Amino acid sequence: RMADDATAAAQQKQQPLPEGLRQRIAAADPPRPTSDESDMDAMLRDEEESDAPQRKPRESVGRLTKMLPQGSDKMGFLDPLIEMVPEKWRNWVVRGIFTIIMVSGFSFIVSRGPIALMLLVFGIQFMCFYELISIGLAVYRVYDLPYFRLLSWYFLLTSNYFFFGESLIEFWGVLLRKDQFLHFLVAYHRLISFGLYICGFVGFVLSLQKGYYMRQFSLFAWTHVCLLLIVSQSFLIIVNIFQGILWFLIPVAMIICCDIMSYMFGFFWGKTPLIKLSPKKTWEGFIGGAASTVIFGLVLSYALLSSPFYVCPVEDYAVDNANCTIPSSFQLREFALPKPLGWIKPKISLYPFILHSIPMSLFASLLGPFGGFFASGFKRAFKIKDFGAIIPGHGGLMDRFDCQLLMGTFVNVYIHTFIKVPNPSKLLTQILWLSHENQLVIFESLKENLQNAGVLPVGQ
């Protein structure tokens, strides 16, 4: 009989419980994770919540970002005049006035040469980084976290040193005509850069506080994403300046033209929405801006490509900006026309840069705006209208230069793919940095190759 009772009890255990009873049991005693890793996660979470300081109730993202400055049509002492303009035209007038001011100021800086342009890029980089970091601070409400702002700007400086150290030292060496200018910084550049970054990394780890781990690591990631978007692309833009001011000026002017003409076509004739991320963007403005940018790029390229000031690389410009060797991209060449056009005229004389301006203008007008769409999505994610309020009618600097960063990267890729050739001056400088024994090895190898090619007679 005892065996029968045990068998019955076992069968009863195997029978499934009613659904309602099983749900009541699960609600009263929820299953706990059984793995050691899950147990450790729960312990850490409980410890963090118990040690966290008392916080205010969580606020919405929209309310948190209201503290950020937003763009407006206010112009200070000119506000009484602007208020007389109909509301529909008010933003148009303000944007037009400050567009003229910005274009005039940019033209003046361009006339000052590559050093002024590099300082301009650095200034824009710092302001864009400030606007993005300010959003992170506002959203996460961590103004009381120790050293976050200090570490963010420290990482910005170390990143700039890593990206710009070697190139800027070489640039100033050319200006000063010194082959060994700050050579020790070039020789140990990566070691110094890594050491500086490690100092910031250690400082961040030491600043971690219980109860704020998730927020601090989120802001750490935020800082590095901003560095990737801002510093790396501004570095590529400055590298474009080294190739010649025109490789910087023409793409920037194309983006400016595309922005202005897209706004005007959309304002006067826009009816068909283009993309939900930017409700004000229309197909009419997009197409009108693209056509205008291609025409504008061809005209401006032809007007400036004959000036050595704009086309000479930095190495030649530093020596003499009027008598440098004009790069082949800016010299008149003959091109054979394909059939059936070749039957009418076999060859045509063109400047290669005119042909290069076409893909740049197409990118600026067709793909460049997606940098603006990306920025619009970013602002919608954090429920803000603009990145800042430094430019009336336009917003922050990031609102104006979101497309420029993408355009500068494309131009750098285009130059390295289709244009750039080894620079003899730069190669000679690098050879002079070698020891005398290695210089002799290069000399003998070069001499042998020239003799085999018949350029030098054998035996000399």
TrEMBL record:
Q: Which GO terms describe its biological process?
A: phospholipid biosynthetic process
Residues annotated as transmembrane: 92-110, 116-140, 152-175, 187-207, 219-239, 245-270, 282-305, 353-375
Q: What is its EC number?
A: 2.7.7.41
Q: Is Zinc included in the keywords of this UniProt record?
A: no
A family per Pfam = CTP_transf_1
Record's compositionally biased regions (Low complexity): 1-15
What is the protein's major site of localization?
Answer: membrane
Subcellular location(s): the record lists: Membrane
Key words of the record: Lipid biosynthesis, Lipid metabolism, Membrane, Nucleotidyltransferase, Phospholipid biosynthesis, Phospholipid metabolism, Transferase, Transmembrane, Transmembrane helix
Give me the Gene Ontology terms describing cellular component: endoplasmic reticulum membrane
Pathway involvement of the protein, from the record: Lipid metabolism; Phospholipid metabolism; CDP-diacylglycerol biosynthesis; CDP-diacylglycerol from sn-glycerol 3-phosphate: step 3/3
| Compositional bias of kind Acidic residues | 36-51
Q: Where is this region: Disordered?
A: 1-65
Output compositional bias ranges, type Basic and acidic residues: 52-61
Topology in the lipid bilayer: Multi-pass membrane protein
**Catalyzed reactions per annotation:** a 1,2-diacyl-sn-glycero-3-phosphate + CTP + H(+) = a CDP-1,2-diacyl-sn-glycerol + diphosphate
Q: Does the keyword Lipid metabolism apply?
A: yes
One GO molecular function term?
A: phosphatidate cytidylyltransferase activity
Family label: Belongs to the CDS family.
Task: Name the chain's protein.
Answer: Phosphatidate cytidylyltransferase
Say which species the protein is native to. Answer: Pristionchus mayeri
